[in-house]
Amino acid sequence: MSMITIEQGQFGSDYVVAQVGGGETLLVTTDYDYPGLASTFGWVPCDCGETDGTVDCPHRTASEMISEAAEYLDNHVGDEVEDPGYFSAVVVVPSNPEEVGQLTTVAAPDKGRPEAGKVYRLIGGSESASIANGNTWSESEIDQDNPPDRQDTLGNC
């Protein structure tokens, strides 16, 4: 399993989750996400175990826990932990209420990477290969020597 680290973002109230040795990063800008990220690095929102830090529990308010999570992250910049799936997996939450809390991790499909100087279709109609439709970067590449007409590019808008 790969390792991740936390870095201070460039705006002071944001954080960057970085894959150690992998080059992948994830920008975290919403304070609502701080408790989950801090928990990844060992923070516990409340000993009662009745909250993830984003909702009040009988002992603490969400606001207190979110502020504490931000302070915890500030104090743990540079720490490394195992990646729980930020970069290597997709977490599937079951729709069956009896299975809630039983998360399943599956490998994320490899979509490849865009290449400099190439043009890609990001969105398109249901018949068009595009990133939004789940196609790979290679499949979504637009042949610049034989570009599609405008209607094909926009899909059925």
Descriptive labels:
157 residues, alpha+beta, four-stranded antiparallel β-sheet, two-stranded antiparallel sheet, elongated
Walkthrough of the structure:
The protein has 157 residues and is an alpha+beta fold. The chain has two domains: 3-107, no CATH class; 112-157, no CATH class. Helix content is 17%, strand content 17%. It contains three helices and six strands, in the order βββααβββα. It has helices at residues 34-40, 62-75, 150-154; strands spanning 3-8, 15-19, 25-28, 80-82, 89-92, 104-107. The protein has a four-stranded antiparallel β-sheet, with no helix packed on it. Strands 5-6 form a two-stranded antiparallel sheet. Strand 2 and strand 3 (25-28) form a beta hairpin. Helix 1 crosses helix 2 (62-75). The longest helix has 14 residues, at 62-75. The protein is elongated, with a radius of gyration of 20 Å. The chain starts with a strand and ends with a helix.
